[in-house]
Amino acid sequence: MDILKRIKLLQQLVEALTQLLALKKLEPIPTTGGIEIRQHHTTKCYDTPLYKANMIVGHIDLGTEKGTINEILNGSRSASYHWYIPKHAKYVVEFVPQEKSAWHAGVLHNPDQSLGKLLGGANEMIESGEPNRYSYGICYEGRYVTTEPNEAQVALAVELAKEKGIDHLPWVEHWLLTSYKPRIVTKFVEAVRALLKK
Fold first, then answer.
1. 161 exposed, middle or buried (CB, 10 Å; 0-12, 13-18, 19+)?
2. What homologous superfamily is domain 36-197 in, according to CATH?
3. Which partner for 36 in 5, 15, 91, 142 could form a disulfide, CB atoms 3.0-4.6 Å apart?
4. DSSP-H helix ranges across 139-184
5. What is the pLDDT of residues 166-179, one digit of tens each?
6. Buried b (16+ CB within 10 A) or exposed e, 141-158
């Protein structure tokens, strides 16, 4: 076999392996309520449940769906969300199952002091230094710090919370925990809260 054929074969092998590393779309996995959830589980999480399910942290992701999936599964960032809602809102991407703690809210940075109770009390918050053990992370695809969520993303977030049995939990903007995060996520959280009240 000549060298060009070997190179072509190696290229095909690399392409096949890349697809197996989650760059290809997984088969839809419908849940009991009818929401389509595509599982792209990552190891970037705590392999244990939350200490307490005290809240849902709303996030905006400043990338594309494909890029975010690749980064969370294969990239160097140590971050994940429980659930991610793409701009098209046709399905939910699950990075971390509900029974585990995602790495979505990082280390506290000038947190709003009113959140102490939600984070397990002032002592636990100070001791833990991070809210991941007390919250679920739900993120919408925003791409830019000025991108507001669309109505379909908000509706899907509400459906997801209801289906997962966490719709009773308060929603909190990520920037209230980590002060330098984008403020636009407030639009997402406020819209979700309003829809949950209906």
1. buried
2. Peptidoglycan recognition protein-like (3.40.80.10)
3. 91
4. 151-163
5. 999 999 999 988 88
6. bbeeeebbbbeebbbbbb
